[in-house]
């Protein structure tokens, strides 16, 4: 299970508090358009998807991810829509789609977006890909490789959601980390500190046996 995820209402409140009046008004209009149930759905979708794309310019790069997540939630974007926006979007838009997944997709049907991001060397995309949705749905094999991808690319392992829970007792992850450390050492390259942090999480914690009751 993933850890607690901030709700959309809380995310919207924080975003509104950080935006100026003009940007807040714009976001109100964008979410209204996204939630609209117009007869001409194609025209409605085109309008809110344009808002999604221009969120960086309207809200500033610092708040664009949050604004885009709020818009996607208002639109009740399904996996097909998320896939289209991801495939057509720039890196910032792709990052927002990845961050929105745990709010919008309950099953593993959007894992292809996570897997695509993990194939890139864009550290911002990799960091977004290893969030709560990946923690919930990636298989053990693919999750281990996602952790190694973070080490390869220099993404802090603090970005990996539920790292301690999923790494606990994972002997195969420990083996892979050991192999990677040995390869780095043999090549005369430093071993990332984060590797040791993850490795320290992998032993299986066995609770001590209960104390015998005194007679």
Structure description:
The chain has 215 residues and is mostly helical. The chain is 68% helix and 0% strand. It is built from 14 helices and no strands. The protein has helices at 8-18, 21-35, 41-53, 55-59, 61-75, 79-88, 91-104, 111-118, 123-129, 132-137, 140-153, 163-167, 171-186, 193-199. It is elongated, with a radius of gyration of 21 Å. The model has no long low-confidence stretch (mean pLDDT 90).
Question: From the helix content, strand content and strand pairing, which structural class follows?
Answer: mainly alpha
Q: How confident overall, as mean pLDDT? A: 90
Low-confidence stretches: none
- E-strand count: 0
Radius of gyration: 21 Å
Question: What descriptive keywords fit this protein?
Answer:
215 residues, 14 helices
Task: Provide the fold topology.
Elements: H1 8-18, H2 21-35, H3 41-53, H4 55-59, H5 61-75, H6 79-88, H7 91-104, H8 111-118, H9 123-129, H10 132-137, H11 140-153, H12 163-167, H13 171-186, H14 193-199
Helix pairs in contact: 1-5, 2-3, 2-5, 3-5, 5-7, 6-7, 7-9, 8-9
Brief characterization of the structure:
This protein is mainly α. It has helices spanning 8-18, 21-35, 41-53, 55-59, 61-75, 79-88, 91-104, 111-118, 123-129, 132-137, 140-153, 163-167, 171-186, 193-199.
